[in-house]
Amino acid sequence: MVDKVPKGHRLVMENRELIELTGVRKVQSFDPKEIVLETELGILSVKGEQLGIKLLNLEEGLVDLQGFVAALVYHRNSGDASRRGFLNRVFR
Length: 92
What we know:
By secondary structure, the chain is mostly beta strands. The chain has a single domain, classed as Immunoglobulin-like, CATH 2.60.40.2000. The protein contains 1 helix and 6 strands; from the N terminus they run E-E-E-E-E-E-H. A 6-stranded antiparallel sheet has the order 1-2-6-5-4-3, with no helix packed on it. The model has no long low-confidence stretch (mean pLDDT 86).
């Protein structure tokens, strides 16, 4: 069987209103002002207004987001993000 999970990570943003992502491992948190994703290249925070998840397919590592995007923040990687505690991830 062919491995369908994309290797690496890709982000395409259109008009600050739609983001298409590949290489997403999981959604760590979600609310209309911030979505935090674990990607192949580390933790990504998407901040904005009226944010929503349009497509979620973690089997293939695909996520599409919509809403007004104010900021994209990649957090420093210090080991495997999935093994660190919640407070360590928040207060890096």
